[in-house]
Amino acid sequence: MIRLPAPRTHTVRSADGAELHTEVYGPEGAPAVVLAHGWTCSLAFWAEQIRALAADHRVIAYDQRGHGRSPVPAAGGYSTTALADDLEAVLAATLGPGERAVIAGHSMGGMTIMAAAGRPGFVQHAAAVLLCSTGPSRLTAEATVVPLGPGGLRTRLTGVVLGSKAPLGPVTVLSKKVLKYATMGPGSAPDRVDVCARIVHACPRPSRYGWSQVLAGLDLEAGVRDLRVPAAVLVGTADRLTPPVHSRALAEALPHCTGLTELAGMGHMTPVEAPEAVTAQIRELTLTYLGARPTTSKEARA
User: Fold this and answer.
1) Residue 267 confidence (pLDDT) above 70
2) In whole angstroms, what is the distance from residue 138 CA to residue 127 CA?
3) pTM
């Protein structure tokens, strides 16, 4: 795993009392970036982006409820409303009044952005967003994890696979092969697969199952229409969980899409599989909408 500098840690309390482990990196007063990770992941998923951006940005990353160091929620604590509440709480706790940030969301993190799109706290703080390897609806119907043609049978089997309550167990050679097939591109390097496997296998089983049920019935199409800030969309062409059909539809439906990037051969885990490309997208948004500029090597040594 990538070694990062010691963060400034916060425990943010959401609307229903859920506690969210939050970490802040980089200089105070620098342009702000907020990172929301996906299903079964944690803020460690963004390690490459945190390392690259923290020199000249204030990078705020949090563990979604039930992931990482954020406790598993009580029964009823899984919903798109909860996702939106949590993001609003993190923004309120880590940004000053009226301070704006670029918000990047991967997979369920992108869905979090869509869920929060019309919220006052989101509107106050969001300067622009990156929707990375995500979709607003029909997730099980469009997923290609099960190697069958589109139709009811594939959708049902996908729901069974992704909604399984079975424990993932330890990280093994076999489990890494399965995870790579389902979530990563065929050319993914072994060390990248290992990073993803260790993060995913650490997700508590109740949280993995609870969020799978939310994702199975997801419908955030209204949130897409409400997302009126500039939005960049990025996806891997080999994504089996949220295939490019979702990103292409998002690019068409978003009120202010700044562009669609399709990364050839990359799977669902784009921030880990293609860290430079994802970081570059975030930097472009901060430069354009926050006026941020990269720190030069001379400035970094001063």
Assistant:
1) yes
2) 28
3) 0.95
